[in-house]
Every structure is written in structure tokens, then in C-alpha cells.
């Protein structure tokens, strides 16, 4: 089975073709805002401008590996969650491809794609997933036919929270890696608000308090304290999800997962609980076309395709809205 998938929920436009066992090709064009954060309309214009050339290059690369357009069995696209204008641009490209090749459309939930690629590219089978990216922060695990959200941010995603604090501190975008670098030279820990409500998280108070703390403390110390506090919060929720579900694996997903300190803290927690900790290769942690194509493949094989009039995008598509048709209980 050959599935072509297109990702475009935010600033990455990325398309890939995969089979059950192989990535045939992947082509990515990243929108880079001139200043500050992402402007949804500009990002959508970027995707519209590059969609045709990305698909063309993808098909050329596939051809070199002996895969022709007529071999493609379905077109997967990121249906949500994400920025409305970006989602609509990518969905339009997917509909055109689906019509011209005469193959079905597959509407993929972006968060679930982050999970499935992690399960594909690591030995994880049935993990508790910590998914921390720019816009999203969720602790997720499969149970009774769905990926359940055990805890999530009540305000902004951890990546956006880090980026916002960094912007206020005069650091260039994206702030996450800069904060990580400054944190390495810290001298002391400054107490900051640690906010968990039930199993849910809140980062906006932490960002505000950290900006405020900069008046009295060094950037290094505040970056370090911000990381220690925010990461302890997500690790605590992941640990509670492990305890609650009785699962034995943790999988890290999303762009913030590049952070070495976060990995170290998760690894320590897993060791203490006798759980395995898995992190996919870096190229599969941020947004990529391969994760959409691969999740699309799983869905396609379980008959989970869309008609054109069901293919409307959903900017607030929730992880637990999706009925997981492609996991058989006996596999676990
Ligand atoms: P989504 O649509 O899933 O929210 P996104 O495009 O917003 O995705 P990703 O590409 O998954 O996000 O991740 C980008 C985020 O990861 C940015 O907020 C960035 O600051 C953060 N990030 C990247 N590297 C690091 C790092 N080393 N430490 C902390 N944060 C990081
Ligand atoms: Fe993402």
C-alpha cells in the first residue's frame, strides 16, 4: 500500500509517501516569519505558494524509487487541529490530488499522527504519550477504542509558552532552544508558580511570573527555573497517567521533546517506575509529512476514508474525537 500524506497545520508544509515499512520520499518547505510568531494568513499563503512544487518534487523523488502516481492508493491530509487558513489550503491540495488520481481521501488528526509515528519508529507498543509542541500539550494513552486525553494544558501549549517568555526577554524565535542553552549556565533555582489542576496544566501564569522574575534575577537563572518548573509539571502528569493506566512505556512527541533536560527528567521518572522511555529520531518529533502519510495508511487499511463532503477541516479537532479503527486489542 502506498499513501501520500500532506501536513500543514502550522508553519511546516510537508508531504511524504510511505508504505507499511518504508518512507519512499518526504519533501518539506518551512514558513519562516520575518518577525515574532506565526501569522496564520501568511503561513497559509506560504503553503499555497509551495503546494504544487512540494508535490511535484515528492512525485519526482518517488519516481526515482520506482513509485508512480498510479501506484498511490490514497491521499491523507492533516484535518486538524491547527490554524484554519493553513488547514484549508492543505485540504484543497489534497482534494485535487484525490480527484485527479481517483483515490480516496483520508482525514488525519495531527496529534494522533505524532503518536503513531512514534509507535512506528520506536519499539513502543502501548505507551503513555507526552505530546508537547508549540500549540499542544497533552498526556494521552489508548484505552477502549480511543486515544484518551488524561491531562492537557488549560491555556497555551508549552512550546508557545516558552516562545512567549523568550520573546519578552528579547530572545529570537523559536525561544525553546535558546532557553535550554541559557539554562545550562544557571547558578540557582528561583521558585515559580507550579500549576496543576486535577490532571490538567496551566503555563500562562508561569510565563508571566518568569518575565516578572527577570527584573531581579539573571536570564540564565530564570530560564533554568522555568524549565525545571514546567517540565516537573508535565512529568508529574505523565507519571500519574502511568500509575492510573498501569502501562509500562512512555513515548515523547512534539517539538519541545527535543529538549535534553525534559528527556532526562522523563527518563529518571521512568527508571524509578520500571517503565521504558522512548523518543523517536528528531526529524519525526516536529511536524512532518511522514506522520500524516503513515497514520493515513493505518486508517486506509482499516477502511477509514472520507468522501469529499466529509473532508471539511476542523481547527479544534480533538485527539479523543477520533474512533481508532486501526488498533486491534489482541495486538497489545
Ligand atoms: P503543533 O501543531 O503540534 O503544536 P508546532 O509546529 O507548533 O506543532 P513543533 O514543531 O512540534 O510545534 O514544535 C515547535 C516548538 O518546540 C516551539 O515552540 C519551540 O520553541 C519548541 N522547541 C524546539 N526545540 C526545543 C528545545 N530544545 N527545548 C524546548 N523547546 C523546544
Ligand atoms: Fe505538531
Enumerate how many helices there are, as a single number. Answer: 9
CATH superfamily of the largest domain: ATPase, nucleotide binding domain
Bound small molecules, which ones? adenosine-5'-triphosphate, fe (ii) ion
Oligomeric nature of the chains? single chain
* CATH fold field value of the largest domain: Nucleotidyltransferase, domain 5
Biggest β-sheet strands, sense, barrel: 5 strands, mixed
Show unreliable segments: none
Helical percent range?
40-55%
Secondary structure class reads: alpha/beta
How many DSSP E strands? 12
Q: Biggest sheet: strands side by side, in what order?
A: 3-2-1-4-5
What does this entry show, briefly?
The chain is α/β, with parallel strands linked by helices and 332 residues long. It has helices at 40-64, 84-101, 110-121, 158-168, 175-183, 204-213, 219-245, 260-273, 289-301; strands at residues 3-7, 12-18, 23-30, 74-80, 105-109, 128-132, 137-143, 146-152, 196-197, 200-201, 249-253, 276-278. The protein has a five-stranded mixed sheet, with helices on both faces.
Descriptive account of the structure:
- The protein folds into two domains: 3-114 and 284-331, 2-Layer Sandwich (Nucleotidyltransferase, domain 5); 125-279, Nucleotidyltransferase, domain 5, CATH 3.30.420.
- The chain has helices at residues 40-64, 84-101, 110-121, 158-168, 175-183, 204-213, 219-245, 260-273, 289-301; strands at 3-7, 12-18, 23-30, 74-80, 105-109, 128-132, 137-143, 146-152, 196-197, 200-201, 249-253, 276-278.
- 42% of the residues lie in helices and 19% in strands.
- The strands form three sheets. A five-stranded mixed sheet has the order 3-2-1-4-5, sandwiched between helices.
- 51% of the residues are buried.
- It has 332 residues and is an alpha/beta fold.
- Bound molecules: adenosine-5'-triphosphate and fe (ii) ion.
- The site of fe (ii) ion has 5 residues, from helix 3.
- Fe (ii) ion binds at residues 110, 114, 133, 254, 287.
Amino acid at each position: 500500500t502506498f499513501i501520500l500524506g500532506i501536513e500543514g497545520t502550522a508553519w511546516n508544509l510537508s508531504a511524504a509517501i510511505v508504505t507499511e515499512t518504508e518512507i519512499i520520499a518526504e519533501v518539506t518547505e518551512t514558513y519562516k516569519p520575518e518577525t515574532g510568531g506565526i501569522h496564520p494568513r501568511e503561513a497559509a499563503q506560504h503553503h499555497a505558494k509551495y503546494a504544487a512544487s512540494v508535490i511535484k518534487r515528492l512525485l519526482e523523488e518517488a519516481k526515482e524509487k520506482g513509485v508512480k502516481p498510479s501506484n498511490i492508493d490514497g491521499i491523507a491530509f492533516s484535518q486538524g487541529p491547527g490554524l484554519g487558513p493553513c488547514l484549508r489550503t492543505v485540504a484543497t491540495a489534497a482534494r485535487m490530488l484525490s480527484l485527479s488520481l481517483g483515490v480516496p481521501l483520508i482525514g488525519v488528526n495531527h496529534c494522533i499522527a505524532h503518536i503513531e509515528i512514534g509507535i512506528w519508529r520506536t519499539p513502543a507498543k502501548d505507551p503513555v504519550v507526552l505530546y508537547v509542541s508549540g500549540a499542544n500539550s497533552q498526556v494521552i494513552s489508548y484505552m477502549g477504542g480511543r486515544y484518551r486525553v488524561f491531562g492537557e494544558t488549560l491555556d497555551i501549549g508549552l512550546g508557545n509558552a516558552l516562545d512567549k517568555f523568550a520573546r519578552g526577554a528579547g530572545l529570537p524565535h523559536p525561544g525553546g532552544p535558546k532557553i535550554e542553552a541559557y539554562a545550562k549556565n544557571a547558578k540557582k533555582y528561583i521558585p515559580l508558580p507550579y500549576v496543576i489542576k486535577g490532571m490538567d496544566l496551566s503555563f500562562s501564569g508561569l510565563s508571566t511570573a518568569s518575565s516578572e522574575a527577570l527584573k531581579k534575577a539573571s536570564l540564565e537563572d530564570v530560564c533554568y527555573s522555568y524549565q525545571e518548573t514546567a517540565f516537573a509539571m508535565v512529568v508529574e502528569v505523565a507519571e500519574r497517567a502511568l500509575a492510573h493506566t498501569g502501562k509500562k512505556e512512555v513515548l515523547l512527541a512534539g517539538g519541545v521533546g527535543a529538549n535534553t533536560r525534559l528527556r532526562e527528567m522523563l527518563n529518571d521518572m521512568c527508571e524509578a517506575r520500571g517503565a521504558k522511555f522512548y523518543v523517536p529520531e528528531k526529524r519525526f518529533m516536529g511536524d512532518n509529512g511522514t506522520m500524516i502519510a503513515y497514520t493515513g495508511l493505518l486508517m486506509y487499511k482499516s477502511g477509514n476514508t472520507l468522501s469529499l463532503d466529509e473532508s471539511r477541516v476542523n481547527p479544534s479537532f480533538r485527539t479523543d474525537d477520533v474512533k481508532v479503527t486501526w488498533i486491534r486489542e489482541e495486538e497489545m
